[in-house]
Amino acid sequence: MATLYYEKDADPSLIGNRKVAIIGYGSQGHAHALNLAESGVDVRVGLRNGSESRNKAEEAGLRVRSVAEATSEADVVMILLPDTEQAAVYEEEIAPHLNPGDAILFAHGFNIRFGLIQPPSEVDVAMVAPKGPGHLVRRTYTEGGGVPSLVAVAADPSGKAHELALSYAHAIGATRAGVLDTTFAEETETDLFGEQVVLCGGLTALVQAGYETLVGAGYQPESAYFECLHELKLIVDLMYEQGISGMRFSISDTAEYGDLTRGPRVINQAVRREMGRILEEIRDGSFAEEWVAENASGRTRFTDLRQAGLDHPIETVGAELRSMMPFVTAGKQKIQDVSGG
Ligand code: NAD
Ligand code: MG
Q1: To the nearest 5 percent, what fractions of the chain are helix, strand and coil?
Q2: CB atoms within 10 A of CB 143
Q3: Backbone phi and psi for residue 230, each to the nearest 5 degrees, phi listed first
Q4: Is 135 a catalytic residue?
Q5: 233 Cβ partners below 8 Å, 6+ apart?
Q6: Ligand 1 center–CA 27 separation, angstroms
Q7: Alpha helix (H) ranges present in 133-267?
Q8: 4 forms bridges with which residues in the sheet?
Q9: Can you tell me which atom of ligand 1 is nearest the CA of 130?
Q10: Choosing from 97, 108, 230, 312, which is the catalytic residue?
Q11: Which residues line ligand 1 (CB under 6 A)?
Q12: Chain centroid to CA 84: how far?
């Protein structure tokens, strides 16, 4: 079994004796900055000039500086900008102000794993990656809990990078829930694979293909929606609470026999081979290269694909059915509020 770190395994004084800059005040940034401040850490927030977040951060009692000033003042710099923006901001406003002995931290390994950011050799490079959205990092902390997190070290000239990362994890509440060692490569590659193949890409394509198959065969779109999308949550909740076998215990024998005999025909050898190819594109850097190029060229393909998803008939029928189930949409406004960055 892997080692998990808890409260007693971290030394809060390590981060307590440093000056921390949180760069960005979005989902993760606001949570890290506020949790660190309430844990007694000397923290400032680095934002671009004219940032809409400036007022929010100042109203919350935080000191706001430019990215360059925050980096100069601090000796630990946590970069919580969107992954596609980090390299440019790093080059212009962070790198020139790093000193030997400083540490830079990330909450996702993308830029280090794919070499988009190459920190100087005398700076510690570590990751503290909460396994949950920023609003939960904040809310659980205020409630006395925390979000489980991963830590990793990419460069350790001080010999203390791991202890520093654990101390930072302690200050944001993560050691209350459990902190696990990983590497920049493992965190980045498994995160991208999970979202592409299972959690987002695989799941949405499966739901749409099931819906299209039923509607194409002449069944009512409403039946297809309930069957292929709405019920998914009930099944996923059972898997989340009790694992796959626990879910199977709750469904009928007919459903279970269909699951066991037909599931492997849907996710067949061809699909598994494709999963392997997708993993290879992640590991050899070609996915990262494609995504960086897509951003550099104005995101036209991304925007078109997003629009095609919005135009899919399952969205129209779904919106109508959900409007009749206010209990389903009750949490919707909250989700939009926190995802705005
Ligand atoms: P976000 O989009 O919510 O916030 C980014 C912040 O950066 C915003 O305040 C935005 O105004 C600011 N910003 C954008 N471009 C900028 C620029 N050019 N210069 C200065 N500021 C700029 O981002 P996030 O979701 O908090 O992600 C931050 C990091 O945390 C990423 O590395 C991400 O992978 C990681 N992460 C996110 C989550 C999550 O649930 N959101 C979970 C774990 C890790
Ligand atoms: Mg400095």
Answers
A1: 60, 10, 25
A2: 9
A3: -60, -45
A4: no
A5: none
A6: 6
A7: 134-142, 161-171, 184-193, 201-216, 221-225, 232-250, 253-266
A8: 180
A9: 43
A10: 108
A11: 24-29, 47-48, 51, 53, 67, 80-83, 85, 89, 107-108, 129-130, 133-134, 341
A12: 13
Q: Which two tokens stand for residue 97?
A: 């102000």
178 CA → ligand 1 middle, Å: 23
Whole-number Å distance between alpha carbons of 193 and 109:
13
Element (H, E) at 129: strand 124-130
CA 18 to ligand 2 centroid distance, Å: 10
DSSP string for residues in 24-87: --SHHHHHHHHHHHHTT-EEEEEE-TT-THHHHHHHTT-EEEEHHHHHHH-SEEEE-S-HHHHH
Tell which atom from ligand 1 comes closest to the C-alpha of 133: 40
Residues listed for the chain: 341
Contacts of 320 (CB under 8 A, 6+ apart): none
pTM exceeding the 0.85 threshold for the entire prediction: yes
User: Each residue of 210-248: pLDDT tens digit?
Assistant: 999 999 999 999 999 999 999 999 999 999 999 999 999
Once rounded to an integer, what is the mean pLDDT over residues 83-96?
A: 97
Name the pairing type of β-strands 124-130 and 149-155.
antiparallel
Query: Pick from 312, 73, 336, 59: which is nearest to 209 by CA?
Result: 312
Tokens of 258: 């269909």
Which tokens hold the place of 109? Answer: 């390994």
Residues 66 and 46 sit within 8 Å (Cβ to Cβ) = yes
Q: Which pLDDT belongs to residue 2?
A: 86
Kindly give the distance from the C-alpha atom of residue 20 to the centroid of ligand 2, in angstroms, as a whole number.
Answer: 9
